[in-house]
Design a protein that fits this description.
The complex is a heterodimer of chains A (511) and B (399). Chain A has 511 residues and is of the alpha/beta class. Chain A has 17 helices and 24 strands. Chain B has two domains: 209 residues, no CATH class; 72 residues. The chains are: A alpha/beta (511), B mainly alpha (399).
């Protein structure tokens, strides 16, 4: 296969920081080339250089595409010659139709007047190519994330893309949608499309990639080729972190006490759609010092359950009982939940977990302000002390406790969220996807923190879509599907197959 | 990119401190530059003792409103368009009660403040609990209370108020040390005491921070800050002393500024306001009753609008249908010039005060120079635009 793209000695600085240091990157025609590395390794920066987000002149080095030296001044230039990038955050407009979105900025128009007939006709054709069975008049907001992702690809195809860059395309997708998307990439490969895939999900990379380039600290480490090098998740991780991670999960011997936290007959209705029950008769128990997993596909009701327990932060007509240490709790709002020793670490740290424009200190103290204040006046010393302690304890990489949270990496942001809730001194911690979108090294650190909390005697509910993670750190696993608990497995019993079996079994309707 | 440095940095460098607080310093520098410019352009009239006192008296109502508006803007870039009408409505009530009904002044003022509370509950209810966007709810309030003002005044002007009411905006604290003719010693004594308190508190704070190993600004910058502040206070006090002493309204202003500065920077509810503006979802999930916070912010704004209305009626010695027109715009502009973010979560009371003073000095300076009202407005609009453009520019640069 011939080389279609070559990036030579790319160096890009942000102020004094070298984000890319002499990176070399070569893509062959018609392949799926995966780009992997920890957060902050420089993957996105490299792709932004390639697509013209960082224009020519703001970096040094050469981009050679199809034999020609490229000097892009912006995204438009790179799109013109067939390079398209799909960012992690989808760039679709929710209140426009699928067809309008596909041809956004690329309208089917003559002298500025849009030909709607052609727009939707062409749109339907492209939709067929990506295997999306939806009418092109449907509004984007009415589609799920998986389908929206397909529309993004359709949009790229409409621009007659030859090199497609996908930045974490499956980060927000469930297992099934992810598989569909990967399948589509393989299909498109057959038609001659070259793609670059950035992903943290290594099993997907192993499944579809022809070549894998590993970046670490802004430099190319190596490129692995299928049929040439050994390709496995462990091999890739070794390249990413620079050492072999013997165990992806820290070891721990559980020291469990009696049943400490219990939710009985929990029922929740959807807050907007009248009459729709989201959580159905859920019963769970957590012992002191135990890590209990709640596994299940996205949309199975895990987050809804957790948030409704946490001070009725979700849903309405909530019924059921909550017991802590044998006593029933009356919780009607988040403040009461916190006062009763509950904490909930949200799955969506950016939009619901952190105040990005504030510093580490103010984020950590936010849910415990009453604790460090006297007659509503905050004790600055205590606040500083708490922030300093947790910054050290959780190894939050930052210049000081006054570092703005928005300038931290994903893993360190997650540590700030954890610090906030650990400082609130809860007895029961509900962790919702605590390792989503963070790199292998930071994940390990966070598992260690969770283990420590359990050893201190806290009861932990661990929600995650990643099955290996649930199996790796939980002492017991509940399986959830369509708002019900459909299985309970001990650590010894649990396996990926068994969990999936529980879900499939319940789908067939025989509980 | 991350650096592996997890040790607390004990001293921030001068460069870092300046950069981190660039917005605040920049506006302060701008204020000083503008003052120097007009000082020269007006041949020294701007900072004549009488004019310094005048500056305070003229702008007292904007300063009061800017404090409240800061809190509104902090909650998420929300503004309150009704403050001018609420001030007018309160003034109209004052006029009716004091001039027509001959009710005692203190009682009337109390009623005026209570009316502020009632209006605040009304607006806060619609904004915080019915969740009508503040822009719309307060636009409605702007029309509503302007209409009611006209109804109460029947389109006429009520005047004059009794001496005791006028005192609020034109009275002075009597000289407690009448030793030197033509010099009111009280402001100088008060500023001396304030300087000592400031010095003591600042040094104590710094010592404690060093003990606790918290990051602090460099010593040179710290000393310069204190020195400049003390110098400014004392020069200002001298100007007051050379005129008629401390205006009563300045005492009210001083108490309000100090109280709200303390409230926003040091108290739990103050922090809640920033959290609400920074990220409402995260604030809610941290146990903050965001509706309640929003409710109290608008309740507070209406009360301060009533205070501003009372102060303004006292200053103009009348209540008239057009009182308070465009007050809201002055207050909003002050906040944005003072560095508040139009998306919420960023801004300070002190910043808004500096912003209001910038506007006030511009008004006053241009009036002395004989610039027409038309040009004054144009220039003020331009200053607002430049201040916010500077904000956007510096934010993009730091990214």
């Amino acid at each position: 296969m011939e080389t279609v793209l070559e990036m030579k000695n790319i160096t890009k600085c942000f102020g004094a920081v070298k984000a890319l240091n002499n990176v070399n990157f070569r893509v062959r025609s018609g392949e799926i080339h995966a780009l992997v590395g920890e957060n902050g390794a420089g993957k996105s920066t490299l792709m932004n250089v390639l697509s013209g987000v960082h224009p020519y002149g703001t970096y040094t080095g050469d981009i050679i595409y199809q034999g020609e030296n490229c000097t892009f001044k912006g995204i438009r230039d790179s799109e013109k010659i067939g390079i398209a990038i799909i960012h992690q955050e989808l760039a679709l407009i929710p209140y426009l139709s699928v067809g309008e979105n596909i041809f956004l900025g690329n309208e089917r128009a003559r002298s500025g007047v849009i030909n709607w007939g052609k727009t939707h006709l062409d749109a339907m054709q492209i939709l067929k190519k990506v295997g999306l069975k939806e009418n092109s008049h449907v509004l984007i907001k009415d589609l799920g994330v998986g389908k929206q992702q397909l529309v993004e690809i359709a949009k790229a195809l409409a621009k007659e893309v030859k090199l497609l860059i996908l930045d974490e395309p499956t980060a927000a997708l469930n297992e099934e949608d992810s598989n569909n998307l990967l399948q589509l990439l393989l299909e498109l490969k057959k038609t001659g499309l070259t793609s670059i895939l950035i992903s943290h999900k290594l099993h997907e990379v192993v499944k579809v990639a022809d070549s894998i380039t590993i970046l670490r600290d802004g430099a190319t480490i190596e490129t692995l080729k299928v049929n040439h090098d050994e390709i496995s998740e462990d091999r890739i991780i070794k390249g990413m972190v620079g050492r072999e991670l013997v165990d992806r999960f820290p070891k721990r011997t559980p020291k469990m006490g009696d049943v400490y936290f219990e939710v009985r007959n929990w029922n929740v209705y959807h807050p907007q759609i009248e009459g729709r029950k989201v959580i159905k008769d859920v019963n769970i128990k957590v012992h002191k010092g135990e890590i209990v997993g709640i596994s299940g596909l996205m949309g199975s009701g895990r987050t809804e359950f957790a948030m409704s327990v946490f001070g009725k932060a979700y849903g309405k007509y909530i019924s059921g009982q909550i017991f802590k240490d044998g006593k029933e709790l009356m919780i009607n709002n988040v403040q009461q939940a916190i006062n009763n020793g509950l904490a909930y670490v949200t799955e969506d740290r950016k939009s619901a977990g952190l105040i990005a424009i504030e510093d580490i200190k103010h984020n950590i103290s936010l849910s415990s302000l009453r604790k460090i204040s006297k007659r509503w006046v905050i004790d600055d010393d205590q606040e500083n002390k708490a922030a300093t302690t947790y910054r050290k304890k959780l190894n939050i990489k930052s210049s000081s406790i006054f570092h703005k949270v928005q300038n931290l990496s994903g893993g360190n942001q997650q540590k700030v969220v954890l610090a906030k809730w650990i400082f609130a001194a809860p007895d029961i911690l509900i962790l919702d996807e605590p390792t989503r979108g963070i790199d292998v090294g930071a994940k390990y650190e966070i598992y260690t923190i969770i283990n420590q909390l359990a050893d201190e005697g806290k009861s932990i509910i661990f929600i995650s879509s990643e099955l290996p993670e649930v199996l790796g750190i939980c002492d017991r696993v509940y399986v959830m599907n369509e708002g019900r608990i459909v299985g309970e497995l001990t650590k010894e019993e649990a396996s990926q197959e068994k969990i999936m079996k529980c879900i499939m079994h319940s789908n067939r309707g025989c509980s | 990119m991350e650096n592996g440095n997890v040790k607390p940095a004990k001293f921030a460098t001068i460069g870092y401190t300046l950069k981190a607080n660039m917005r605040q310093y920049a506006m302060l520098v701008a204020l000083i530059v503008i003052m120097l410019f007009f000082q020269i352009a007006t041949n020294g009239i701007l900072l004549v003792p009488m004019n310094v006192t005048n500056l305070i008296l003229q702008n007292s109502y904007v300063l009061i409103l800017a404090i409240g508006m800061t809190l509104c803007i902090l909650t998420g870039g929300n503004i309150d368009l009704s403050v001018g009408s609420v001030a007018a409505f309160t003034a109209a009530i004052m006029g009716t009660l004091i001039i027509e009904q001959k009710i005692a002044v203190p009682l009337a003022i109390l009623i005026g403040l209570l009316i502020g509370v009632v209006i605040g509950i009304w607006q806060g209810f619609w904004i915080a609990y019915v969740r009508i966007p503040p822009f719309i709810a307060t636009l409605a309030g702007m029309l509503l209370f302007r209409g009611l003002t006209n109804t109460i005044l029947k389109g006429l002007t009520l005047s004059p108020f009794p001496k005791s009411f006028q005192m609020i905006s034109s009275g002075y604290i009597p000289d407690l040390f009448p030793f030197i003719p033509n010099l009111n010693l009280t402001p100088i004594v008060v500023s001396g005491i304030l300087s000592l308190i400031l010095l003591y508190v600042q040094i104590k704070n710094r010592k404690r921070k060093i003990q606790n190993n918290t990051e602090i600004i460099p010593r040179s910058l710290f000393l310069m800050q204190i020195l400049i502040t003390i110098l400014a206070i004392n020069l200002f006090a001298y100007a007051l002393a050379a005129h008629k002493g401390i205006p009563i309204i300045l005492v009210i202003l001083g108490v309000l500024i100090f109280a709200y500065h303390f409230f926003t920077t040091r108290t739990v509810p103050g922090r809640y306001i920033y959290a609400l503006g920074g990220n409402e979802k995260a604030a809610k999930l941290s146990g903050i009753d965001t509706n309640k916070v929003l409710f109290f912010v608008y309740l507070n704004m209406a009360v301060l609008a009533a205070v501003a209305g009372i102060a303004f009626a006292s200053r103009t010695n009348s209540a008239f249908p057009l009182l308070g027109t465009n007050f809201e715009m002055d207050a909003i502009a002050s906040c944005f010039i003072g560095g508040a973010s139009s998306t919420g979560g960023i801004g300070t009371v002190i910043g808004a005060i500096i912003g209001a003073l910038v506007m006030g000095v511009l008004n006053n300076g241009m009036s002395i120079m004989g610039v027409g009202i038309d040009w004054q407005m144009t220039i003020k609009g331009f200053v607002l635009l430049m201040a916010v453009a500077f904000d956007v520019y510096s934010k993009n640069k730091s990214k």
